[in-house]
Amino acid sequence: MKGKRKLLNIFYIFLFSSFQLFSQNYNIDFYGIISEDIDNNMAKMTGDLYYTQLSEINSFSVTDKRTGNLLTEYPETENFANSKIAFYISIKKDTKTDKWSTTYHVYDKNSESEKTKTNQYDSFYKILMESKNTLQENLKNIIESDTFEVHSSSKEIAAAPDKTEKSVINSTESLSGNWAGEENIAKIVILRGGRGFIIFKNGASMNVSVSITNPELSEITITQTGKSNASFYPELQRNTALTAALTAEPIKWTLFVKDNSTLIGKKQTLLPDGDSYTSGNIDVEWKKLN
Question: For a Cys-Cys bond, which of 84, 138, 179, 252 suits 27, CB 3.0-4.6 Å?
Answer without folding.
Answer: 84
